[in-house]
Amino acid sequence: MNKKISLAIIVLILLIAGFFYWQANNSQPKNDQTDKGKLIEIFYLPHPPALAIVDKVEPIIAEFPNFKVIKYNFDDPASKDKVAEYNLVNHTPVAIFIGGKNSFTIDGKTVSLLNFPQGDSFIPSFEGGWTYKDLKNILNSLK
User: Fold this and answer.
1) What phi and psi, each to the nearest 5 degrees, are found at residue 39?
2) 35-67 pLDDT per residue, tens
3) How far is it, in rounded angstroms, from Cα 63 to Cα 48?
């Protein structure tokens, strides 16, 4: 067998093996923390009052390691598509989505994770209808 044909056969075998390896690793569903139900997305204005809220919710979320967190700064152009996806058009200091939702029913009441939590509002008109305890209860119910 001549060297060119041998080299061509080796390259062809490597390409075929590489294709099957790629196919096997990309065709199976991923069973990891990016599962939509286990994803927490935190949108925030990059100002100290809103950042303080993010700093306070992070330890609560850390108690639930099966959730993955992605944070989006409202002022970052890279967040533009996600902000539009969730139709966050109003001036919202903080918005938290869990599994693509931000409204949940806890103990018979509907809780939306928008704006500042109750009792921790920088501006009273931006106080939301949720508490840190509500967030923890929501996460407990979804774990």
Assistant:
1) -105, 125
2) 667 999 999 999 999 999 999 999 999 999 999
3) 24
pTM: 0.73
Instruction: Give helix 132-142 / helix 48-62 axis angle, nearest 10°.
Output: 40
- Please give the structure tokens belonging to residue 32: 């990891």
Each residue's pLDDT tens digit, 109-131: 999 999 999 888 777 778 889 99
Reply yes or no on whether the pLDDT at 31 is more than 60. no
- The shares of helix, strand and coil residues in the chain, as percent rounded to the nearest 5, are 45, 20, 35
99 phi-psi bin (left φ>0, alpha ψ -120 to 50, beta other)? left
Q: Nearest-CA neighbor of 123 among 88, 87, 85, 93? A: 93
Residues forming a β-bridge with 110: 105
User: Count of residues for the chain?
Assistant: 143
